[in-house]
Every structure is written in structure tokens, then in C-alpha cells.
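Lab notebook: predicted structure, single chain.

Context: the supervisor wants predicted structures on file for every construct in the current expression panel, including those that have not yet been purified. This is the next one on the list. No modifications to the sequence; it matches the entry in the shared construct table.
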Amino acid sequence: MATNHHDTGYKELFSHPEFVEQLIEGFAPSEIAALMDFSTLEQHNGHYITPLYEEKIEDVVWSVNATWEGITQRVYLYILLEFQSKVDLRMPLRMMHYVASFHDHLIKNGVTTAKKGFPPVFPIVLYNGNQPWTAAEDVYEMVSPKPPSFLRAFQPHLRYYLVEERSYSDEELAERNSPLSGVFGVENAKVGHEALQKAVDRMLASIRAHPQKERMDRIITAWFKRHLKWLGARVNVDELRSLMEDRDMLADNLESWAKREQAEGETRGMAISLRSLITLKFNGVPDWAEQRISAASNDQLKKWIENILTADSLEAVFND
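Prediction complete. Output recorded below exactly as produced.
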């Protein structure tokens, strides 16, 4: 899986136990979260080479004490960060190999033996792509055609739990009211500074409500600065030191960025229109004309568009 800003940013978030707890408590089945003692969370190395893909994957692995039927045992939370632009239909097969490689890692490092058996693993795929998730969630579903009943017991089975950010509405994220749900809301925010600002304000509210709000503020501010760079926001992120303290400054910067984007969009639109009109009337845009168009202001472009209606030559179009 290609490394990008999401992988880096989310790996940083999930290197903190609070965000692992928020992920399980807010987005995993409640009966699973109820078994876990999050004060016992322990992070593990999350890089394993799989025999199928021969790649270092971007994942996060934690273990936690879980108690059921009077027995307390370590359970491993295997979190795979999936931020590809297209859904990978091989995900069930990938996850089966990743978990098998992780089990092999535990044996090689003396955590367990083949005789003792493997500890339970809860595989999670965290996906924030724009396309709906369509991959199967159990490798058995990839077996086609469906085998007869006497063969079904011999087919592979491994199911992962999917957390698809785009499937949660703003209201559903607000109900969870955690810094992580605020992060998901910012990721899901539609284009436009107003939608982004609303999502940031919801995220800020969840940070302020957290018992360790200063720590949450530091962690999420670092993530958000990286997110702004990825968005291409022309905001001086070096000035942003705290989302809680610098909220007004950030709001002003986002509004200024939006206005610049709007003005530049209008300029691009007029330039495209002018090129089309010149091509229709004078059979193409020569280099000298292209250079003037590319360097022109809104007012100049508007004047030239007016000129083309009466101009009898290309030179006359650019006569100010």
C-alpha cells in the first residue's frame, strides 16, 4: 500500500492509546468494547513481511486485556490503515495473509508456540477513501462458485471489521463525541471553508470535553497541520500551535484561503472562455496571446472578452 499523508498522520494518531480506545469504543461493536480493559493497552511493532505480497504494510498493532466467561486473556487489535483511491477487492486475502504473518511473528519471537496456540486477533480495516467500500469482508465470500455443503467446512474463513469513515453522517459522529470522531468529521468535510470550519468546530468541542484536553489538542493540532498541507490550503500552518487557542486565527485564514480560491477560480474560468472565443473567431491562440492571457488580471480578461465582440483582428482584442 502506497504511503501518503493519511498513513503517516493516522499512524501517528494511533500510536497513542487514547485513539485506539476511541476507535474501539466509538466504532466497534459494543459487546467487544465491553470486554476490554483499555488501561492495559500495549503497542507492538506493526511491520510484517507477508509471503504473498513481499511488502512492508502500514498497520498498527496493540494488545489489550479482555475478560469473558471469567477468563482474562490478551487480545491483539490489528488495525490496517487503508487509504487507497480505489477499493482493493483483494482485501480479504490480504488480511488473511497479514494475520497469518503476525501469528508467525509471535511464534518466531517466543510469544507463543504452535502447541500453545494463537491468541485472539481482532482485525480492523480503517478506510477513508471516497468510493464506497465494496470488497468482501470475509475471505470465504471470495470462494466462487459457492461450494457444496460437504466442502464448505474446508474453505478458508477470516473476517475483518470495517470502519468506513464516509458511511457516518455528521449526526452519527457527533453522537460519539470523541476527538477521533471529530477527526473523521474533518476528513469527511465537503469542499469549502464553511463546511471545513464547522467540522473543525465540532472537533474542537470534542477536544474541550475530553478529560486530557491539552494532550488531545497537541496531538490533533499536529495531525490537522499535516491535513491542511495535504488539502493545499494556503494557510501558514507554522503559526498554528493550538487548535483551542488559535481557533479565531484559523477561521480567518480559512476564509481568506477560500476567497483567494474563489477569485482564482473566476480568473481561470474567464481565461478558458477567452481562449475558446479566440479559437472560434481567429482559429487558435498563438503563443504571444497565451502569455498575455496567463498573466492577466480579472479586469483585463473581462475587457478582452468584451473586445472580442467587435475586434476585427486578434491584436485588437488585446487593445486596452
